[in-house]
Amino acid sequence: MPVPLGLARRLLLPPVRLPERAWKRSAFIATKQYDNGPQWIKVALTLGAAAALWRLLFMIHKRDLKEYERRQKALCEKCTDIQN
């Protein structure tokens, strides 16, 4: 019985090689990365943003504490008025 032609071709041909472009660098990482030191602009922006967020957090907390104390004082005055 003869061997089918498709099977014979697959057995006799060399193994499939990856295309040449598969070994090249991707377009998404085509720029050279410099790892010789920290990128001070990014460091400064990150620390500045973190400091600004912490400052905002403390300002909002301080405002909320003042509002809480004002309401507690108003509540205590209302309670003493009712008792008298």
From TrEMBL:
<comment type="function">
    <text>Accessory subunit of the mitochondrial membrane respiratory chain NADH dehydrogenase (Complex I), that is believed not to be involved in catalysis. Complex I functions in the transfer of electrons from NADH to the respiratory chain. The immediate electron acceptor for the enzyme is believed to be ubiquinone.</text>
</comment>
<keyword id="KW-0809">Transit peptide</keyword>
<keyword id="KW-0679">Respiratory chain</keyword>
<keyword id="KW-0472">Membrane</keyword>
<dbReference type="Pfam" id="PF15088">
    <property type="entry name" value="NADH_dh_m_C1"/>
</dbReference>
<dbReference type="GO" id="GO:0045271">
    <property type="term" value="C:respiratory chain complex I"/>
</dbReference>
<dbReference type="InterPro" id="IPR026192">
    <property type="entry name" value="NDUFC1"/>
</dbReference>
<keyword id="KW-0249">Electron transport</keyword>
<keyword id="KW-0999">Mitochondrion inner membrane</keyword>
<keyword id="KW-0496">Mitochondrion</keyword>
<comment type="similarity">
    <text>Belongs to the complex I NDUFC1 subunit family.</text>
</comment>
<keyword id="KW-0812">Transmembrane</keyword>
<dbReference type="GO" id="GO:0005743">
    <property type="term" value="C:mitochondrial inner membrane"/>
</dbReference>
<keyword id="KW-1133">Transmembrane helix</keyword>
<protein>
    <recommendedName>
        <fullName>NADH dehydrogenase [ubiquinone] 1 subunit C1, mitochondrial</fullName>
    </recommendedName>
</protein>
<keyword id="KW-0813">Transport</keyword>
<comment type="subunit">
    <text>Complex I is composed of 45 different subunits.</text>
</comment>
